[in-house]
Every structure is written in C-alpha cells, then in structure tokens.
Amino acid sequence: MSARPEGTVTTEPATSATEPWATRELGLGLRHGDSHVPAPAWDIPDLIEPGLRRNPRRAHLLVSTVLGKHLPTDPHRVIDAGNRLGDLVLEALGDSPAVVLGFAETATGLGHTVAARIGARCYLHSTRRDVPTAVTLTGFEEGHSHATSHLLQPMPAEIFRNELPMVLIDDEISTGATALDAIRALHAFTPRPHYILASLVDMRTDADKAAFAATAAELGVEIDAVCLAAGETLLPAGLVEAVAALPDPELNPVAAVRGEFSRLELPWSRTVPEGGRHGILESDTPAFEAAVSIATAALRDHLTELPWGSERIATAPESVDQAVAHVDSVEAEPASATVSDRSSAAAANGSSLRPVIVLAHEELMYLPLRLAAALADGGVAARYQTTTRSPAYVLDEPGYPLRRGFRFTAPELGEDAPRFVYNAQWPEPIAVEPILLVVIDEPADTERLTEAGGLIDVLTASGADVVLAVLPGVDPQALQAIRSAGAVVVAPSGAERVLPEPLRGPEFGSYAADEVAWLLKDLSGADLEADVAERERRIQAGVAHYAESLPVEYQPDAAYRELFDKVLAESAERLALAVATVSEVVMAERGNDIVLVSLARAGTPVGVLMRRWLATRGLDVPHYAVSIVRDRGIDAVALDYLAVHHDPANIVFVDGWTGKGAITHELAEALDAYAAAGGARFNPELVVLADPGACVRTYGTRDDFLIASACLNSTVSGLVSRTVLNDTLIGPGDFHGAKFYAELAADDVSGRLLDAVTAAFDTVRPQVPAQVEAVLASDRTPTWAGWASVEKVREAYGVASVNFVKPGVGETTRVLLRRVPWRVLVREADAPEHAHIRMLAAARDVPVEVVPDLAYACMGLIKDVAEQ
C-alpha cells in the first residue's frame, strides 16, 4: 500500500533488549491503537513486526505474523485470522450478499479465506500475471509497489459485474491510497452502492481516514473499513538513508551437502478453479473441497513413499520431545497460539513423517494454505508461507523477522524480475529438519525452476530437501465454457442462475464451431416427427402448438436438388450484395462492438454469412442462434445467457426475411416482457436480409427475391431442425430444443451455400457503398404493407385466419415443405424467383394461380383441414 512520507513521525530511543531489532537499532516502531476482535484479542505487536527494505519510497516493511507470507506460520493461525476478519465483514454487510476482491499478491489467500467465511457469491483476486487466454476486465495501479499493475481477469467477466457490495481485502492499510484508487477504477466500470475495505491491520492516520470520507462523498457511495487491530507506524527521520547504510544482505546460503529433490504431479480437475485469479463462485465450493481432499491424500502418500521422507535429524542437539515442548512453550501466549498448532506439533512426535513447510508461489496462496492445514490435521507438523516479488532486507539478528533470504529467477517464461523467499526454515528449534514442499501451478512449471539460480536450485543448495508439487493449470477459456455449461453465475440482481451450455458443430449441426453457437437443447434422440396431415389437424384444432412437434423432413427429388444448384449459382451475387449491405448498415448504426443473434433456423445461415462479411472488415463477431416461437415468445433462458455473457446493448437479432411481420411483433413483445420481469433490456429491432413486407428498418433489400436457404429444410441450415418447445422435453432452465439430422449428411448443402455466397463477396464489394448509402438515405419507416396485402388475400379467398396466409418466397416455400398447402398464388407466371415453388407445387398436386396485383412475388395458402 502507499506509504506516508518518511520522517513525518519520530519515536523515543529504544531501551528494551526485548524490543524488535528495527525498533531497538533504528527507531522504527509500531504503536497499538484498538483491537476489533473479541477475546482472545490481538494487538498490533501480535499481528505485525517491523522489517526493512531498500526502497526510496518506503524503507519499512510490516511483516505479518498471521498472513504466512514472509514467516513460516501455523496454517490454522492463518485461517483463524482470515475467519476473524470475515466475521467483522459479515457485521458490516448485515444480511446482504457480496463479492470479494483480494489484492495481489499479498492478500490473495487472505481474500479467499474471507470470501469462504462469508459465503461470497464470487471471489476474485487481482493478478500481475497477464494470462493470454483470459480477458482483462479492468485494472488499477499501486503507487508504491515494486509491481504496480493489478489486472482483473474473471472468466466470464459477468461473474464480477453486478451491483452487490464489494469487499476489498488487503493485509494492511498504510494510507489506503491504493484501495481508494481501486474503488474509483472499479466504480467507474461497475458502480456499486457499498464498499468495505477489510485488512488485518489498519495503520491510517486521521488525515488518511478523512480522505476515505471525501472519496465516499465524491462517488456517492458508502465506504466502510474493518480490521483486526488498528495502530500507528512510528517512522524515524532518515530511515531510508539508515537502511541504505546497512551492510548488504547475504542471500542464498549454501550448505556442504545439497538437499534431496522429488517431484509430484498433484491430482486436480481442470474443471475446478484452483483459486481466485479467474474468479471462484460460491457454487464451486463443494468441488473445490473435494479436490483439496484428493490432493492432500496424494501429497501424504508421496511423502510416505519418499526414502528420505521420514527422517532427517537436525544439527541442533534437541530431541523431538524437547522440540515439541519448546513449540508449546513459545506459542502458549493467548495472542499467538492456537489449539490446532499445538496438537499438530504434538502429533508429529508420533508421526513417521517429517515436518513440512508448505511453500506457496506468489499469488497461488489459498490452495497451498488449505493443503498445509489438511496435512496438519492428519498429524504432520506443518507450517505455511509463500514466495514473493517483494525485495526485503535480510538480517540474521535476534528480534528481526527476516533472518535469511533467497533470490531466484522467476520461473514463468517471459518474466525477468527476480523473485524472493524469506526464512523457509522452522521458526523454532526442532530436532527433525522440515521438508520444503513447494506448490506451483502449470505456468510456473518450467526448466527455470531447476536451472542455476532457480527456486529448486537455491533451496536444495542450502541443504533443504524439497518436494515440488505441480498443480495442473485451469484454462480460462475452458473455465468460461464450463461455467456456461451449468455453473452458477451471478446475475445483475445478485441472484444465482444455472445456465446450459451452447451447442456447436460438429457435435451438433454441420456448421463449424466458430460459425455459430446454438443456444438450444439437443433433442436428436427424441421422437418428435409426426405425419404432416395429422399434425396440421391437431394444430388447427387447437389441441397442439406447431412448436411442440416436428414435421417429417421433406426430401425433394433429384430434379429439385438440381434446381437448387442452379438457383444458388444464379443468385449467389445477389445474396452476397444483400448480406454485405445489411452488415454495413448494422455497423453504421450500431458500431463495431456487436454480437449477432440469429433466429433459428431461417436466420442462422444469414447470421453466418454476416459474420463472414464482417470478418473481411477485420471484425471477429460472436454469433449465436436462438429460438423464437410465435405466440410463445423468444427463449428467455437464451436471453439470460446472452445477458450474462455480453452487453445486451450489443446484441443484434437477425432473421432471413419478413412475411407479414409476425415475428417482428413477437420479438418486440417478448423482449418487453423479459425486461418487465426484471431481465436485461435488449434492442428489439430485427435485422433481416430481405424485407418485402416493409416490417423492419434494417435490411439488405426489400425485394421479394429467392434466398437459396429457403429452398430446402435442414439440409441447407446446418442439418438442424426447426425449434421445439414442449413441456415434456423442455424444462424451466432449458433452452428451447432442436434436432441434429446427422443421418442427412450426404444431402447437406449448407456449406455449399455459405461458400458460394462468400466467394461472391469480392465481386460485389464495389457495389456495396452505393447500396448502403441508398438504404441509409431512404425512408425506412416500416409501413407494414405486407400485412394489408395478406388481409386482402384472406378476404378474397375466404381464408379463416391470417395464419393460413404465408406471403413471400421464403414463407411460401415453407408451406410446401412442412405444412398442408391449399394453393399457391404468384404475381408472374414464370418469374425465376419462384421456379422452385412451382416445381414443389407440381410434385404435391397444389394448384398455382396467377394474381397480377399481388404485393409479393408469391403467397402460399394453408389448407383449412377443419373444413374436411
């Protein structure tokens, strides 16, 4: 944390030989103010000791006795301190849930302990490790630190984006400047009404506290601070110069005999977060606890099997019994002892395993802490501490906390600054030398560890026996996918919600995995197809909804498939121009930060093609396919997914074409209902390739022309059925469903359609600017002219419902492919736009009538089976 200027406070000369060395020799003192935890209370000298560092901005270092950073510490003492701090946080929170942020590197384990104690919805710690496969949500700076940049990389980002109170955890508050800078940065990104700064010790002056009050007023928020104890740092004048004048420290001690070394691959599921670098949710706790138990058992087995794991007598002429008695006597004071510590030390007398110091690596603190505690609970004498990036002054003098130190090469590739570890030895005299159990994660598992100057090299050179336990890395992208597949995410309201996983090809559908993510439930194994005539009777009788079942997929004959090929070849450039036009109009109106969401299934080929066009413009745009059902609305679970993973303002809904405009209405009404129920607010404007019904503002063309993807069923739409919604197969937390017709792969032309249109992009590119300008300059206000035309036809032909009138080339094709058609109306007898429709009508004995004043190129009329 940021330091107050040196020399602003002085202290009386030290006289007591029992005082800390830095107090006695340099006048650096610590003054207790208040204890904030119930008995047995801790005061400032119990919680921190004065240390030194050669830093012109801050020459003093507060060495915690309960954090386990610089001093090998009983793991239960570390956990107890975090739990006590968590209890203070709970009092400040009242009944409100919260998210917790721990500051790297020192407080990552403390923050996790507090988060576990209070049952935080999410715990995240800042990180100095820029993980390339993670997305940086935001960051902030730490003024005095040796490594100033803090990155926040939750995966997905939305687990930390909510309005819950935020608890910020640090080991100490010196002035609180870094915490205030962090609050400002975080509040600008995601405003919250309440912040709580929690620390082991609070050393702020009255002026520092006034700055907190001023910041709270500035932001219009509440900022509370809680700590185990408060006090004051007494800084003598000239401390920076005094430390600089001290002899250079001796680092990396070397013994006559190098220690032993062993390596262990820790069992750990890659589906379980190992810590808070990318966020850990309350719902992750059961899996985390189970994984800790498995890893502890593997550690114990490994230590048992080591030929040197059971004995290595120290040079001190003290028996194990005497050592245990000494530990008891040293730690018998209420402020520093714990029952678990004394019991684990006593258990070591009867244990065949040597004591261990679990040595965590930098930010990976909490899991090693839990491993150390579990070993202690199992009868192994255990202490816990970590490596650090912080250079501190080492001095082998009684009363000084940093008695020996090691400087080593950063094991992570690409990192150049050295790393440090201090003490790394049993804190009291002991008859059996401890094993140093180094726990690292995969990015730190490099050759640098064992090379000259690496961590393992310098530790074994000191004579220590070392076990390296390597934790498999959790890939941030995989973690995001896992959470999307069913982990609990925190919604903006603070409620927890379980979301299914999107489906992708080739496991579902024939489109490539990066072309579209289907927000659908796979119903491929369900028996959903019904006879077309019987299905139509049930729908029209009102005993079934069209989305509850599927029609049998009509597969046209060879002549029709040849016609498709001809249509595609003749219309590819026209399709490409419409795709490019609508894509550019979207960019002009919505910017480049967009997410395409196509309405399955007619909209999905259009969404894929728009994504491909945007890729030629240098944009990598996400694309999802969701279900919308007439009279039932859009899939609300899919909207939940989109709201959690993306900014709702960036969502662009895409469909193939408009007919009467029923889906346009359905989308707007469904999104309004979703927002009214407490969901996010999405832009209801529908984007289509063709808008012959004049129902939308954003389109590629308003011509009623043949879109090749309308000619066929699933074999031109990624082998995916139209969507299904019924109570038998779709539960409250499920996406709407669909089937993958993998058995039709031999007839699949989905890729052929996409590639033919994509190949025409360069040809039509010179025409695109003029087309876009014409669209943007025109009056695009929807007139709903198509609906009036439909009403006119309905009356002229005595059709009972407008739902039986399907206008336009696309909708007429659908009538012939999956409904019971009555007749087809065309504006021109031989227009190329409906050549395939005339062929389908002839195959099904459906009459075709010419109606010259038709508003569309053609219309399909569904037979009223109730009249039969």
Keywords:
Rossmann fold; alpha/beta; 24 helices; seven-stranded mixed sheet; 35 strands; 868 residues; disordered N terminus
Question: What report would you give on this structure?
Answer:
The protein is α/β, with parallel strands linked by helices and 868 residues long. 33% of the residues lie in helices and 19% in strands. It has 24 helices and 35 strands. Strand 33, helix 24 and strand 34 (848-850) form a beta-alpha-beta unit. Helix 3 (75-93) crosses helix 11 (366-377), helix 8 (285-305) crosses helix 11 and helix 16 (603-616) packs parallel to helix 19 (750-759). It is elongated, with a radius of gyration of 35 Å. Residues 1-17, 143-148, 315-350 and 487-496 have low confidence and may be disordered.
Percent helix range: 25-40%
| Spatial extent as radius of gyration | 35 Å
Low-confidence stretches: 1-17, 143-148, 315-350, 487-496
Number of domains: 4
Arithmetic mean pLDDT: 84
Alpha carbon gap, first and last residue: 83 Å
Summarize the structure.
This protein is about 35% helix and about 20% strand. Residues about 1-15, about 145-150, about 315-350 and about 485-495 have low confidence and may be disordered.
Draw up the topology in text:
Blueprint: H1 21-26, E1 29-35, H2 44-47, E2 48-52, E3 60-64, H3 75-93, E4 99-102, H4 108-118, E5 122-125, E6 138-141, E7 149-152, E8 166-173, H5 177-189, E9 194-202, H6 206-219, E10 222-234, H7 239-244, E11 261-265, E12 280-281, H8 285-305, H9 320-330, H10 339-350, E13 356-360, H11 366-377, E14 382-386, E15 405-408, E16 419-422, E17 435-441, H12 455-461, E18 466-471, H13 476-484, E19 488-490, E20 496-498, E21 517-518, E22 521-522, E23 529-530, H14 532-541, E24 550-551, H15 558-590, E25 595-600, H16 603-616, E26 623-629, E27 633-634, H17 636-645, E28 651-657, H18 662-676, E29 686-690, E30 698-701, E31 737-738, H19 750-759, H20 761-764, H21 768-777, H22 785-797, E32 805-807, H23 808-818, E33 821-826, H24 835-843, E34 848-850, E35 858-862
Parallel strand pairs: 4-5, 4-8, 8-9, 9-10, 11-18, 13-14, 13-17, 17-18, 21-26, 22-31, 23-24, 25-26, 25-28, 28-29, 29-30, 33-34
Antiparallel strand pairs: 1-10, 2-3, 5-12, 6-7, 15-16, 19-20, 26-27, 32-35, 33-35
